[in-house]
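Please decode residue identities from the backbone states below.
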């Protein structure tokens, strides 16, 4: 069990609408956090990566269930522009889907610094 797994185990709760996972690497390169999140989401990431001819996107959305509620997992590989704009766009999509308006966790495993003022984001302490 990795340290990241242990921390995620306590921070991914039913109070969240989803998780935005930010890495410098492409999703298909299995970046930091891939194995831990794949475990929590029942192999969803491995199933995605195993598909033939999977295109590589800057942002990849997954819709799943956690604790009996809809849960969105989003992988973001930021470009050179400000990451906060990407996060606001993603949040807009997730909040349209989540009628409870639960917060969305952000797991930043990239080299980018985040400056989020929106209280709908919950930065995970990793």
């Amino acid at each position: 069990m990795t340290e990241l797994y242990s921390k995620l185990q306590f921070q991914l709760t039913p109070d969240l609408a989803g998780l935005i996972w930010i890495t410098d690497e492409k999703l298909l390169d299995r970046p930091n956090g891939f194995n831990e999140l794949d475990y929590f989401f029942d192999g969803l990431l491995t199933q995605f990566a195993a598909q033939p001819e999977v295109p590589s996107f800057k942002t990849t959305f997954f819709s799943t269930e956690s604790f009996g509620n809809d849960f969105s997992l989003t992988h973001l590989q930021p470009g050179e522009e400000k990451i906060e704009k990407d996060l606001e766009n993603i949040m807009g999509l997730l909040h349209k889907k989540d009628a409870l308006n639960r917060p969305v966790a952000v797991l930043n495993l990239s080299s980018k610094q985040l400056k989020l003022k929106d209280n709908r984001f919950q930065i995970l302490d990793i």
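Observation: The longest helix spans residues 83-97.
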